[in-house]
UniProtKB/TrEMBL annotation:
It holds the Pfam family GSCFA. This is GSCFA domain-containing protein. Signal peptide: none annotated. One of its GO terms (molecular function) is hydrolase activity, acting on ester bonds. The lineage of its organism: Bacteria, Pseudomonadati, Bacteroidota, Flavobacteriia, Flavobacteriales.
């Protein structure tokens, strides 16, 4: 007997393996998945400009990256004793303007190269709600706690979102025609916008993204959709799968969604290597009651042998 509905997931025609180079961009759920890639030692770069929630800001960043448009002094501002950019997350903010510009421009240069070399790009869309700077009339990726009166809040239309996604795809493909896209909608609900407003926001993302995928599927088999939102809302429709805020997926949910991603988007040939990495990671986290004992020294020597053997097979893996 089945006591829950299960979301059907199509296997990727271009699965990820240990030779793949991944770039993950988007909401905080992108970071949850990236932690899994990092744990299993895949070649993955995540959110070089910090967490980005809306598709217009993602599009703006890729336009800058793909065209190698460096940040200038006019692109940053001073607020609450720190320098910020409205195009990036506050994690990158800095008390020194020049250091911020150097950090941002290094990210532009490095991400440009990563896009050229990537085999897969994973884009996680979070919300259709955006804040527009009233003075510049530009959509911001992050408000940096600037007073609310300086922004207008808007819900992006399906048409605007669709054009942003299409433009992002075109920018990336012009730089790297062989890249494989994996899109997903974040299962994190933006309840601060309101319950009805969150559903409306997600529905706009779904409509726009699936319009793009429906058009592109006839031309590109490398555009995939992974249903993380649907898994969370349907297979895991119970608050025991949420963290204490009752909004974000907890570790059990993240592990389960990763398991389904793993089964359908990672090559079976990589499973044995993932098992080796997992065993090493668990051993590295082991804490001995007697670190100086002969038994523990033998354990460490055997562990180092495993690390060296794996490094010989895959030189990019570092522990």
């Amino acid at each position: 007997m089945q006591f829950r509905t299960q979301i059907p997931i199509s296997k990727s025609n271009f699965p990820i393996d240990y030779n793949s180079k991944l770039l993950s961009i988007g909401s905080c759920f992108a970071e949850n998945m990236a932690e899994k890639f990092d744990y299993f030692k895949f070649q993955n770069e995540t959110n070089p400009f910090g967490i980005i929630f809306n598709p217009v800001s993602i599009d703006r960043l890729f336009s800058r990256v793909c065209n190698q448009e460096l940040f200038e002094e006019k692109d940053v501002f001073f607020h609450n004793e720190r320098w910020h950019s409205f195009d990036v997350h506050s994690d990158l903010s800095n008390s020194d303007r020049q250091e911020l510009l150097e950090t941002l421009n290094k990210a532009v240069t490095e991400t440009h190269q990563q896009v050229k070399e990537a085999t897969h790009i994973i884009i996680t869309l979070g919300t259709s709600w955006i804040y527009r700077n009233i003075e510049s009339e530009e959509v911001v990726a992050n408000c940096h706690k600037v007073p609310q009166k300086q922004f207008s809040k808007e819900l992006l239309s399906v048409d605007v979102i669709q054009k942003s996604i299409e433009n992002t795809i075109n920018l990336i493909q012009n730089l790297n025609p062989q890249i494989n896209f994996i899109f997903t909608i974040s299962p994190v609900r933006h309840i601060k916008d309101g319950f009805v407003e969150n559903q409306l926001s997600k529905s706009h993302l779904f409509a726009a993204l699936h319009n793009v995928l429906k058009i592109d599927k006839s031309q590109f088999t490398s555009h995939n959709y992974f249903p993380s939102y649907e898994i969370m809302m349907d297979e895991l429709r119970d608050y025991r799968f949420y963290s204490e805020d009752m909004i974000h997926p907890n570790q059990i949910a993240i592990d389960y969604i990763w398991k389904l991603f793993n089964e359908n988007y990672i090559s079976q040939e990589s499973f044995a290597l993932m098992q080796e990495v997992d065993e090493i990671q668990k051993s590295l986290r082991h804490r001995s009651f007697n670190p100086e004992s002969e038994q523990h020294q033998k354990f460490l020597a055997k562990l180092q042998q495993k690390i060296n053997a794996l490094g010989d097979k895959l030189p990019h893996i570092k522990f």
